[in-house]
Amino acid sequence: MPFEGTISVNVLTVNLGDSSYNIIVERGALASLGQQCRDAGLKGTAAVISNPTVSGLYGAAVVSSLASAGYSVVQIEMPDGEEYKNSTTLNKIYDDLLDAGVDRSSFVVALGGGVVGDVAGYAAATWLRGIPFVQVPTTLLAQVDSSVGGKTGIDHPKGKNLIGAFYQPRLVLIDVDTLTTLDRRHFRAGIAEVIKYGVAIDHAFFDFIEASTAAIMAMDPDVLIKIILQSCQLKAQVVELDEKESGLRAILNYGHTLGHAFESLSGYCGLVHGEAVAIGMVLAARVSVAKGLCTQEEYSRIRSLIVQFGLPVTVPQFNRQELLSVVAADKKSKGGTITFICNSGIGMYAMVHHTPEELLTLGGLEA
């Protein structure tokens, strides 16, 4: 899956047979949403699910585009924040869908970041046993990761994303201009997922990110389009081979096993997802060094790149036993061991199997 530095088209197709869909990446894409939904064969009422912040910024443009294409539109708001990615929020959305008369001929538009996309996608997957939905991600993290691949769901108090479904969108529409209103903390958090692809899958892409740090932080739109397209392309290639994470797709969890644990223990409000993943990647690289899969020099490059983007690399102070319990509850845990994704050098991955205790020890988190 080499990165060649240039991508000439701004449309990617995720090839999944009857569940195939396009990912469109361009500036000003929101204006074309209604027509793109028509081209995707969507009909009926469009239920736009967003949070107050994003709705205030882009809700009117989305409603206007959908209405111009002949759709009836209803707007549903959910609270902003990972701590609201739960069953209470989901049930409120069900109430709103029912009150608005959203039926099987309708579709959902998820307008926002990863939390909105995951919850709205799961609502679509389960409302009336499933209605179509469209992802319109407005954060970098959602644009390069969570909006692609069909993972939808909510968190459980004892773990992240433990409740959900694989449910592919009918369209992913990415307007790069929405990043201009994203705060710097969440922009940097999105970079963590971009780095993940370079470390675990594509060495040339890692080199490109490393060489383009200044342009990325300056939010050069052309560079942003390149990294978003390549991230989506790499993820799409993995999803096409393993849609429901029976094996290969687990490589996309590089940095996430421990990252999810840190999020959970912080109550989903002390660390944002990308920050937790950044720390998780540093620990995954340490485990890789301990396993002889990665050199100290490669580890230093990975850590240095994460630091250059202003992301955290230090593990927060948690109770060790609580951390072990949360790691043990990870979805990839079977029979007391966890399938853990290491980096084999830079640009390749390796799967190892360890108990939570072994992983913490290999990662340098001594008792």
Structure, explained:
The chain is α/β, with parallel strands linked by helices. It has 2 domains: 171 residues, Rossmann fold; 149 residues, Dehydroquinate synthase-like, alpha domain (Up-down Bundle), CATH 1.20.1090. It is built from 14 helices and 12 strands. It has a 7-stranded mixed beta sheet with strand order 1-2-9-6-5-3-4, sandwiched between helices. Strands 10-11-12 form a 3-stranded antiparallel beta sheet. A two-stranded antiparallel sheet has the order 7-8. It is globular. The N terminus is likely disordered.
Report mean pLDDT, rounded to a whole number.
93
Widest β-sheet, arrangement of strands: 1-2-9-6-5-3-4
CATH class of the largest domain: Alpha Beta
| Share of β-strand residues | 15-25%
Under CATH, the topology of the largest domain is which?
Rossmann fold
Gyration radius (Cα, Å) is 20 Å
The end-to-end span amounts to 39 Å
- SS summary, helix count: 14
Number of strands: 12
Which series of helices and strands comes N to C? Answer: EEHEHEHEHEHEEEHHHHHHHHEEEH
* Known CATH architecture of the largest domain: 3-Layer(aba) Sandwich
Low-confidence stretches: 3-8
Shape estimate = globular
Q: Summarize the main sheet.
A: 7 strands, mixed
Count of spatially separate domains: 2
Q: Which class of secondary structure composition applies to the elements?
A: alpha/beta
Helix content: 40-55%
